[in-house]
Amino acid sequence: MSSSDRPFSLHPRFAVLVLASAVAVVVAAVVGFGNPPSVASSLAPTPDAIVARAEPTTGEVPPLAAPGVDAGPALGADGSVPDGVTVFDDPVPAVVNLDADLLAAVRRAATDAAADDVTFVVNSGWRSAQYQDQLLRDAIAQYGSAQEAARWVATPETSPHVQGDAIDVGPWAATTWLSEHGAQYGLCQVYANEAWHYELRPDAVDRDCPTMYADPTQDPRMRG
User: Fold this and answer.
1) From CA 141, how far away is CA 126, in angstroms rounded?
2) Domain that holds residue 101
């Protein structure tokens, strides 16, 4: 066979040089001309990604409102009481708006009751006239008549709660403790049907509590 009939083939060393040159040309083209538009656009961060990186990564929750910005009416501003409020919770209007002498007496009693592992919880205290009116309307709907509702809820004009002169205490351990010891603090249950309702009767310290009314309809103050 002559040399002209043999198939063409590169010497191994020469083949390596050719391949290296081709790679260098491709790299130079990429570096010199940059990414094609389609590739560049796919590498650009999306708006969502930018926002995500801008958010704090400390786990802190931003405040609901900036300092000094009114976030709405205070909880319990009408005299409604959140669960778990005690007689020592000054920020709660139902507590802090009570008559000062009544509140002082209840706190003295609560302090002494704590020695017996009894906690005074405030179920109700001071109430706004609007809240009292709502409670009365709810009671009328529940009991079916204004006459029956009056055994449990007074009008805004006559309620001692609106005046800050009454507190409803719970749980039963607290009312039981007060029924036994309340008089020495001037704290008296006023209505036989409301074991939780206490008012201040300073004379009770020396003379014991007066006879209870069967319910608020028997109280002369409710007829005004």
Assistant:
1) 23
2) 93-223
pTM of the model: 0.67
Q: Give 44-49 contacts, CB < 8 A, sequence gap 24+.
A: none
163 token code pair: 């005046």
* pLDDT tens-place string over residues 36-76: 333 333 333 333 332 332 333 323 222 323 333 333 345 69
Length of the chain in residues, anyone?
A: 224
Determine, yes or no, domain membership for 108: yes
Residue type, position 98, single letter: L
Question: pLDDT tens per residue, the chain (224 residues)?
Answer: 444 444 444 444 434 333 444 434 333 443 343 433 333 333 333 333 323 323 333 232 223 233 333 333 456 999 999 899 999 999 999 999 999 999 999 999 999 999 999 999 999 999 999 999 999 999 999 999 999 999 999 999 999 999 999 999 999 999 999 999 999 999 999 999 999 999 999 999 999 999 999 999 999 999 86
- Among candidate residues 99, 100, 111, 125, the one with its CA nearest the CA of residue 196: 125
The SS3 of residue 166 is strand
With respect to residue 45, please indicate whether it lies within any of the assigned structural domains.
no
The span from the CA of 41 to the CA of 39, in Å, is: 5
Number of separate domains in the chain:
1
Q: Distance between CA atoms of 154 and 159, rounded to whole angstroms?
A: 5
* CB 108 within 8 Å of CB 87: no
Alpha-carbon distance of 182 to 189, in angstroms, equals: 8
Q: Judge whether 38 lies within some domain.
A: no
